[in-house]
Specification:
- The chain is an alpha+beta fold.
- It is built from 8 helices and 5 strands.
- The strands form 2 sheets. Strands 1-3-2 form a 3-stranded mixed β-sheet.
Length: 199
């Protein structure tokens, strides 16, 4: 769960919450390599479909080992899933900073205390789910991105960044959050990249 490279307008540095969850998904996709120059409406369709897919997933369980550590602020990471061995790394320093930002920005009604830890675990569980099971193909079908068509046969293509949007939507839904964790990751990126900050 990274703090995505999202384009921030000057006014949004103070009111990131004015941007809705789907638009944050669009910006995440737009900032993902391979999407340079893509039509914004196409990115919006993919963001909507990925959000719908993630929010509609049945409960996802993870058997990954959870390891808590520092160093996430430096890497701009809240959590990370690795498949060999199956591990979720939770970065306690970034989670603590996220909780501080939620309080400072007055977003506590959307993100109850401790919810960012739960959201990070849920988010990484989706990455494991998509990595190890048939859900990855289901996400491709939901996105409806055709890369090859031969007669009535078509090959669904991968959309870089769509798994992130889906994982954030799942975390928002399963944790009962008022807004997507994408909003918090945008606030983290803004805080961690502001001029004069030493990481």
């Amino acid at each position: 769960m990274t703090a995505p490279e999202l384009t921030l307008q000057k006014a949004e540095l103070t009111d990131l919450s004015a941007v809705d969850d789907i638009e944050w998904g669009v910006r995440l996709l737009a900032a993902t390599p391979t999407h340079e120059g893509r039509d914004r409406e196409l990115l919006r369709q993919w963001a909507c479909r990925a959000d719908e897919f993630g929010s509609g997933l049945a409960a996802v369980t993870s058997t990954a080992r959870v390891v808590e550590r520092d160093g996430g602020v430096r890497e701009m990471l809240l959590a990370r899933y690795t498949s060999r061995p199956q591990t979720v790394e939770l970065y306690t320093d970034t989670l603590a900073l996220a909780e501080e930002l939620i309080d400072a920005r007055g977003w506590r009604a959307w993100y109850p205390p401790g919810s960012m830890r739960a959201a990070a675990l849920a988010h990484e569980a989706v990455h494991a789910h998509l990595h190890h099971g048939p859900a990855k193909a289901a996400l491709k079908q939901a996105l409806d991105h055709t890369v090859l068509r031969l007669g009535r046969h078509r090959l669904a293509g991968h959309v870089a960044g769509a798994e992130e949007v889906a994982a954030h939507a799942y975390a928002r839904t399963v944790c009962g959050l008022g807004r997507s964790p994408l909003l918090v990751t945008a606030a983290l990126r803004a805080a961690l990249t502001r001029p004069g900050r030493e990481n």
